[in-house]
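Sanity check

After download, print the first record. It should look like this:
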Amino acid sequence: MIPRIHQQGSNALGLLHYLYGKGTHEEHIDPHLVASFDGMAPDPGRDPSVTKRDLQRLLDQTLSLLDASQRPDRHVWHCSVRAAPDDPILSDEQWGDIARRMVAATGIDPGDGAGCRWAAVRHADDHIHIIATLIREDGRRPDHHRSGKRAQAECRLIEKELGLHQVAPGDGTAAKRATSAERHKAERQGRERPAREELRETVRRAVAGATSEEEFFDRLASAGLLIRKRIAPSGDLLGYKVALPDDRNGEKEPVFYAGSTLAPDLSLPRIRERWALPAEAAASADGSRAEQPALPDVTGPAFARRRATAATWQALPIVDHGDDGAAAAQIAAAGEVLDALAKTSAAHTRAELREAAFVFERASRSHVKAVRGHDRVLRQAARDLVHSGPALGRGEDGATTAMLIDMAFFLAITAANWHARKHHGQQAAAAQQAAEHLRAAYQVAADQPMTVLRQRGQRLVPRVRQQQADLLHQVLPDLAARVQTEPGWPALAATLDDARRGGNDPAALLADGARRRELDTAISISDVLVWRLRRSAHLPAAPEIPQDTTTRDKHRAPSSAPTAQPTNGAANGTARRR
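Expected structure tokens:
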């Protein structure tokens, strides 16, 4: 249940005309009162002899207690309370009780016999509107300070008592929601999202991996946004505003939004924090970067996705076990990686990845201050993704996209767990929701490469298949039975065989892949292990079309069979480090 305190107004009659009207799209059905300050207010929705002006005059009578010069310019208080989409339809009596509890909790009518005059109007199944005059019966102003937080707290109690969907409590770090006027405007213009949300998404993508103001503003311009900079008399840049070219007000002028009004972390000073790098953090980041094993000297989407996968892998233990500032920085940078991935994704994964990045934005902010610098590797990964260009979604870049999405899923789950431990309810829920979108994107991205790998596994000769099964039982005895029942087991068997052929120790790779991260949240353990092993062993993510290995295996020496001991010390060392 979501309460929303709207901006105070000065025209009670105008608000009543809206509440009792048909709505912007005739969505208001049977407008009527469900409660009022004395239980006897006239209802212009059900009583044809009563007008909206009659109700307005009754509500505004307390204004006469004050001299005209003492009356507040904005005396109209407006609060809407909306149930969740999956909540049952409440009765008028239930909504009336909710209205009385809300005005009491917010200080509008605290129950002392001299509260403000108010009325609650219902014109839809899932919400009510409360209108009140901000002058009490004794002529004093009500104590409605922090009424938004008080309303939220009361709604949490109501949800528990009525068995409704329980909304995670906020902490003041969320981005400002689009107003009803902004939403209606977007609907009229046929926009998918309100201008505020479109701009926030575009600015976040421009920030992802950027390293300077010049690059940031170049990206905004390239995205087609109108930019207005705020310059001090000294010539220093103080801030910025952005607008969509076709989003205009009544005077046909662009509607600009300051970065700070789009989201708390999109103000220019907060963006600059991402570029600052303290000396100790720089040394730590450089060390982390140096630990990454050398990848083939290639460029392009596939290479960038491998880099990003390795960076994400390194971020997981920091979020799990690092100090709070470092963990918060990694989670914030993970949002940049998702923004960059969505921006460069192929068409068939774009929708789910865009939604994942959109909802994860809420998980990237909390009251835990991110210690910037620790996130340098992930931010560089986001930069690599942007500069590598869009992926075609086929071949190696399509398979490495699946590899990265798989790792990003675990990072989102890890972020959700971290926020849950810190009692950040909204952030934990957002990270979990992002994980579900990533899971859906993975299913699409992994379909073709996993099909090829499964075919390779199915074509292995029985002796080799048995060797991989024995290895699985030897290294992962508790998971082996489950893994072998999964559709992805042949793909894992093929990957183990590929690792052996590449001179790696498949036993060490398998043990390391399972040990470094939990697997309980995986739908397919074999899929997860396939991508971890192929990344660690530097195997092509998208193998060639299956070929018959029977002849080659008949002539292969028995000593080449996988054992529990390393066949290549350097490769095994790399596996342990990763």
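If your output differs, re-run the checksum step. Summary of this record's structure: The two ends are 45 Å apart (CA to CA).
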